[in-house]
Amino acid sequence: MKARILGGIICTISVWGMLMMSQSVQANSLTVDQIIYQNGSGVNATLFSGSVDATITGTGSSTMLTILLQNTSADGAATDAGSPSLMLLTGIGFQLAGVTITGGSVSVNTGSTALNFDSGQSTTDIGNQWGYANSNPDGFGDTGVLALNHVVSTMASSGSTRFEGAPPSSIDGPAYGAVSANETQFGNSLAGVDDTIKIVLDLSGTVNIGNINNVVLSFGSPDSVPDGGCTIALLGSALLGIGAFGRKLRAR
């Protein structure tokens, strides 16, 4: 009897292990390489920030990329209470070769809160307010923005496809983006999510999470790349490091 029970346990563990292997789970926090934003009154672009946690499950035609998109901006990133859209994290773009986004879903992440949602709008499922593109619309293709081939955004664009159809008749962007939990200026006139949005993308090909590059976050209706943005800051750090290394060599 004990041998049969032990054999059953081993068999169960083996099956579970094979199922986990077949799912090919990959998870990582992605580095944000650049931030683009909408210029406006009271904007301090150096205070904009966000985090991106990514998980890949499945393989081949059943690959899914799950993104937790969180607005972590400091209070005061945008101080004009009359322009709350400037405070919203409205999209993400990235470079990933060899795959195509074919669909997916967007929702209010567990533990986050729906703010000022329109009457009749689901307070969990917001796929009707977000779209995806295998290109770079909505300011992601502007001069100075890193090279991208995939964008997910709450901004309406002829180059994007809504995750879900009406209602409403069109995306009400930049509403339904993510507002930082640190923000005190947002008010109650625009719909937003406090503070994390969950994006699930259906992909056509096998993905290695390490191949996701050029991660760009957008705030508001993006039209500007800050001079002090992430890419510039990273370049400055690199130059400082090179300078310090040179000084050490001269000191020797």
Strand content: 25-35%
Structural class: alpha+beta
Radius of gyration: 21 Å
Number of domains: 1
Main sheet overview: 6 strands, mixed
Return the average pLDDT rounded to an integer. Answer: 85
Give the proportion of residues in helices.
10-25%
* Total E-strand runs: 14
Strand order of the largest sheet: 2-14-5-9-8-10
* N-to-C order of helices and strands: HEEEEEEEEEEEEEEH
Using the alpha-carbon principal axes, give the shape.
Answer: globular
Number of helices: 2
Contiguous runs where pLDDT drops below 50 for at least 5 residues? 5-23, 228-252
Terminal CA distance: 75 Å
How would you characterize this protein structure?
The protein is an alpha+beta fold and 252 residues long. It has one domain (24-239). It contains two helices and 14 strands, in the order αββββββββββββββα. The strands form three sheets. A six-stranded mixed β-sheet has the order 2-14-5-9-8-10, with no helix packed on it. The longest helix has 22 residues, at 2-23. 37% of the residues are buried.
Provide a brief overview of the structure:
By secondary structure, this protein is of the alpha+beta class. It contains two helices and 14 strands. The C terminus is likely disordered.
Brief descriptors of the model:
2 helices, alpha+beta, disordered C terminus, 14 strands, five-stranded antiparallel sheet, six-stranded mixed sheet, 17% helix, 252 residues
